[in-house]
Amino acid sequence: VLFFILSYIYSGLRFGRLIEVRQDYLIPLVSFLASFYFFVLMLFYSPNFLNLLLGFIFLGIFVGNAAERNIFPRIEIPLFQTSGAGFISSLILIFALLLSFSGLYFLAQKYIGNIYYAKGLDLLNFKGDVFGAKLKIGKAVGFDPEPQYYRALVQLNLIELNNLFQKTDLTPEEFRQNLQTALSETIQNAQRARELNPHDSLNWLVLGQVYETLVPIKIGQAADTARQIYQEAKRIFPTNPEILLSLARLEFQSDDFEAARSYLDQVISIKPDYSAAHFLYSQLESNAGNTKQ
């Protein structure tokens, strides 16, 4: 990277000294300035695939035109004059081309996935369109299966589950079928995020939130499963206040107020201004009859 930066700066300075006000110097001048513009953008703003691609495209145009006009000294390496060297050089060139196209394809996949992810967040945050956001982020996952995208899908699934719990116009059979479908999709997305990176506590946390959602409706061993998952997240990141708050919230729902208070004390000791922890603490004290605290 350092060699590339130094070579680029040297080329620009050399071209600046040799440039003449002539029409045939217009293309290398414009292409160099364009590449310089896109590279500077990546220094002062968040780098993205499009700026990187355009920067190197204009750099290639600049180098090609500058070499054609003998602005820079040309070094020729005869690769195909002998059969042995020619065969090896052709293999190296083919491998380099394949590697370049593979890298370009990989970067394009990540870039397109990020675009769909951003569009999905915009639909959710500005329009409240849960279904549209789910479609966009689902497309992002198709291009680039990042744990972050799966976690976003889980949060959308949890919104849908909460909406389902609030519906009163469904028969018990319809509710059961809708719950089974939504729950299966939610758990699948959460497990996929965990599988992609089992060392990230956030992936365990979001899986625990899925099972915690089921605690109020008394489904199976939801509380025990959520507790085990949260404990694993805590093992990975023991000082994360969000994980400790999730454990406190789970124990509060399970009527284990002493355990909930213990976790809340840990949360507040780590993050004294955590409003969600203080709110849950007030609920806990209210249930215990300590309304003056």
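The record above closes out task 2.4. Task 2.5 opens with a second protein, given below.
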Amino acid sequence: WVPDRVAALPRRSHCIRGPRTGKRATMRAMPYLTLDGRRLFYADHQPHASGPALLLLHGAASSHLVWPSPLRRLPDTRVLALDLPGHGRSAPPGRRMVAHYASAVRQFIEGIGLNKVVIAGHSMGGGIALALALEPPPALLGIILIATTAHLRVNSALLSNCHAAFDSAADFIVEHGFAQAPDALRGKTRQAIIDAGAVTTFGDFLACQQFDARTRLAGVSLPALVISGSADRMTPPRHVDALVDGLPHARRIRIDGAGHFITLERPHEIAGHVIEFMKKVDSPRMNTATDTYG
């Protein structure tokens, strides 16, 4: 990895936003990092904050813009929101295996020199975080798995429609992804999926379909916070229950009435739980060799 010294970009980005907070997040820097001649883009908020950093990994057919302000502007915390390869402003191609995305994230962590980091991943991003926790880099303190499971099953019709009828696939994702959301938010989410493109979306869903860590969960020694919605139709609660039962040091948060796009529906609640977790994993009293996070 060779860091590119890139100043903050002059033009404004269009974000998918959850409920309005009345405040604007301060974006300190929006640089790139180069891997094998291909650039990865990331937004870096409060880069000079002390303590563990939070690295946000988006899900399939998405980008760093999906993370709402309450999660991007945690108090006194460096928050990095990465565009995975082939997504957003990062160079193509995307990947077709979760392990390959995890490899890119591992090199990203090493390339920018993070010493302490917690990874939070939504859906496919959670699968990537889980894959990293199975063979953790030295800097990784814990993982936050949001609307994800140990086996990321994908509807077969959805997978085939990524090529045959991409508009219909985008409609399906939005329809099944939200439990409750205004039409404007649904429309922005659908447009973000269309912008990701059929090829990248198909590759992401193929990566999800092939990912299965169910037999390896006992080997995760790091603390894990697992957050899901009771109305999630894409990662049903029973599958999340199995994930939590298999992880040795996991705490479960279930938010009533929330769907798969839980970070957009309930950003303030998610942020509160993330803040609590970040404080606990940085505590010298936490010893995952003997204690369960809770």
